Sequence to fold (198 residues):
Amino acid sequence: MSQKKLILLNTGIAILILGIWYVASNWSSWDIGYKFVATFFCAVVFGVLFVVFMLPRLAEAIGAYFYSAPEQIKPDEYTRAAAKVSQGDYEGAIVAYRKIAADEPDNRFPIIEIAKIQRENLEDSDAAIQTLETAIEEKSWEVNDAAAMVFRLEDIYLTDKENPERAKELLQMIVDEFPETRHAANAHHKLNEMSAAG
Fold:
């Protein structure tokens, strides 16, 4: 609280106390009109003090109770890895995502992020291919996870390596391994588009 506000608060409290003392000592001798004016004066002084000094502090305390975190939020591993990408520390980000992948072996996200950094930021498609192929070969993934990685791999072979034959093989692998899924339908559609394009 500033010095000026502190002086005003003390002055207001002093006026209120003096007013209450004066009213209390003369209450029995006053008629109804004086009693009303005196009560009104004390209520106005108290109201001004409450609105100017107490209400903002009360509102601040209520806001802090409902909206402040009870403990400091610590960044998780994903946030740290993403921050490294933002800072241009791509190798550091890959190390961070590899740690996440080791801690969460059923999570495809860190693998895909590593391949994305290698391909887009480091412009190393071969490393991205190696990352995805190794992940696919080393583990039996859920259908959605495996299909997502194979589709990424197919895109790298088609776009970066300009190898449509390998891309077609990967699409056919999706059709064969995940029949009657939307992934197989998408792969079949892409195969038809590639065949029509020649």
